[in-house]
Amino acid sequence: MHVAFPARTVVALLLAGLLAGCPAKTPPSTRAPKTESGDPEVARSSGERALAILDDLERAVDEDRATREDRKRAYAEVTALPDDGSAAYAFARAALAGRLAEARGAKAGRLVGEAEAWARRALERDPEFRDGAATKLLGSLYALAPPRLLAHGDSEKGLEMLEERVRARPDDLEAHLRLAEAYVALGDPEAAMPSLCLLWSRRGEVRGDEARLLARLLDDVGGPEVLACEGGG
Predict the structure, then answer these.
(1) Is 32 exposed, middle or buried (0-12, 13-18, 19+ CB in 10 A)?
(2) Which of 75, 78, 99, 141 has the smallest set of CB atoms within 10 Å of its CB?
(3) 3-state SS string over 95-111?
(4) CA 124: distance to chain centroid?
(5) 229 CA to centre of own chain
(6) Hey, what's the torsion of the CAs at 168, 171, 173, 175, to 10 degrees?
(7) Which residues, including other chains, have CB under 8 Å from residue 232's CB and lie 6 or more apart?
(8) What is the pLDDT of residues 148-197, one digit of tens each?
(9) 125-118-4-188 Cα dihedral, nearest 10 degrees
């Protein structure tokens, strides 16, 4: 997993559910069976453990009860784990760097670069991990973060990644949300309308932190009544 840059401050929208995105809504973490030693953690890879920590934080974010200390603790726990080479580990590192960046605001420069680096690794390791979560996280990051904080992308690259995801997976509501967020943040609300219309028509499927982001985006463009969606929205 906010989280979770435009005119609202450098990292105010970084991983807005993300980051976001964190995944749109990741499945709940599961407890590993106990081993002969009695310790369930022995049987778990670093990636599995990192995802469990991320998922716990994302649930707290969705319920609007995650504190800055919760984010710092989750970030510290995962960074203490060794990299097992999995997309799971890399994505958890990226998402948790983003969630901590949300809390640090203008002081989050290093964390933005860290989120970018780990998201790129997750994308290289498995592009389809958790329904393309790394693509959506990285696309949002490139679209929203100041270029000076990034090493490999910019807003044009971010929009391209998100647009490609929407074309490839038109039913991916999180991809539509990230694309709409990027267009609104970049001052092109008209380009966000198709995605906002889809999201509004299926708003019952958008929950938690993402529902709050959708509400903010709709408020930014003037409310759902201005969407002019085909079929009345």
Answers:
(1) middle
(2) 78
(3) HHHHHHHHHHHHHCHHH
(4) 17
(5) 26
(6) 0
(7) none
(8) 999 998 999 999 999 999 999 999 999 999 999 999 999 999 999 999 99
(9) -80
Cβ–Cβ under 8 Å, residues 186 and 221: no
Q: CATH 3.40.1620: does it fit domain 43-171?
A: no
Q: Name the strand (E) or helix (H) holding 191.
A: helix 189-201
Amino acid at 99: R
Q: Closest Cα to residue 70, out of 54, 83, 81, 82?
A: 54
> What six digits make up the tokens of 67?
């504190």
HEC-encoded secondary structure of 130-174: CCCHHHHHHHHHHHHCCHHHCCCCCHHHHHHHHHHHHHHCCCCHH
Residue the block writes with tokens 């998100």: 162
Pull the structure tokens for residue 6: 């435009």
Domain boundaries, the chain: 43-171
Q: Does the global pTM surpass 0.85?
A: no
> Which tens digit of pLDDT belongs to each residue from 103-122?
887 677 899 999 999 999 99
